Amino acid sequence: MKVNGIQLREAIKRWELRAQTASKQFNENVWAFDGDDAPSPEYLAAEYAKAQESVARIQAAQSRYNLLVTLDFGSDEKITLCEAVKRIGGAGRLDKMWRAAANNTGRDRYSIRENQRNSDTIYAKRQISVEKCVKEANEASKRSAKLRSMIAIGNTAEVELENLEPELFE
Asked: Which residues contact 66 (CB under 8 A, 6 or more apart)?
């Protein structure tokens, strides 16, 4: 079956919702009054198991998909979609670190960290300039944006994956 990453992601969301719904209803339907039109715990357990199984199957297919799709990361570097997804978290955190460093005044709002020592009144010095931090923040932001863009583009690629039933995507 031919699929793209967006179809895989959305199918996972739908099955996770079905699992969550069955799980929530299960406890609520252990007890029922005569004449109540409530689903049985057995039915809900079966629905939950089916949904969890479907999520696992689609996630396995998503892993295969992410390893098959390749992206041009630089002029001479190709990476899999899987690697790009794994890199994005760290790239975003690095971007955030540089932005925070650019805005760091040396003062802690709770006065835990001070930029001077009382014994000789020695002042701490900034180890990196604000301008350098801003430059690094911009570069980190560009890298993380490029990764996000590549992931979005990569998720539109259609790939033939075996052992996928169309029912998983309904």
From this structure: 5, 80, 81, 82, 85
CA dist 133 and 54 (Å) reads 46
Element (H, E) at 102: helix 81-102
In degrees, to the nearest 5, what angle opens at C-alpha 145 toward C-alphas 141 and 151? 150
Pairwise CA distance, residues 129 & 69, whole Å:
40
Helices vs strands, H then E, count in the chain: 4, 6
Strands 70-72 and 78-80: antiparallel
pLDDT per position as a tens digit, 81-125: 999 999 999 999 999 999 999 988 777 666 555 555 566 667 778
Cα–Cα distance list, 143 to 5, 118, 157 (Å): 22, 42, 22
